[in-house]
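for the writeup, i need someone to sanity check this before i put it in the appendix. the sequnce is what the collaborator sent (i think, or maybe the updated version? ugh). structure was predicted straight from it, no edits. if anything looks off just tell me and ill rerun, i have time this weekend
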Amino acid sequence: MTERQAQRSTQGKHRKGSNSRPVRHRIAAATLATAGVSTAGVSGAAAAQFTAQADASHQFTMVADSGALTQSSSPQILAIADNHPIDNLREQLTKAVQSNAARIQTENEERIAAAAEAAKHISEKPGGVVLPTNGTLTSPFGMRWGVLHPGVDLANEIGTPIHSVMDGTVIDAGPASGFGQWIRVQHTDGSISVYGHIETIDVTVGQHVVAGQKIAGMGNRGFSTGPHLHFEIHPGGQAAVDPIQWFQEHGIYLG
């Protein structure tokens, strides 16, 4: 082999060696790039899959919550529609009946209490004298328009009980001019009491009565401007005197 041939051979080897090195580098770089792309692809796919799963989970949660709301409300509506109206109606009716009964009982107790209070006013006082009724003094004894008003007027509702002011015997019970109806009782001391404008009569002539006994119901009969009792007292069966003073003499204060 000549020197020229040796140089060519040597140069050819150097070119081959220098050309092979960049190729390997490019292959390695390509491999790394491919690996990077593959890794990035995997990471992107995983991220996309995670995001999709998260969205699906969020949607499922919303649907589940919506379903929970529907489940929590629907049974209540069905339960009310199917079961509660009848039971609730019965309960309401029962409560209404009980409330009405309690109201009636309360009203009765109030009436009883009022009657007991009225009884205090007509209870027997020292000397065997009681008030004739429970009412408001609307007209006293005395002259009115030139005419004597020989008694007192006590106003209350029609039917308010009227009582005998002392023990005695009924001497009149029925119609009377100006009074519509009246009752007169002659007492053991000779006094006569008069009860006028009465609506009902509970005694008969000749009947013995005691102080505080109900003898009539208040009315608005005869010459009357409203329900009331016109009461007179005639000591010893003589002229009428002021009932207010007469009651005071027996320890009772009227009006």
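The mean pLDDT is 76. The longest helix spans residues 3-82.
thx in advance!!
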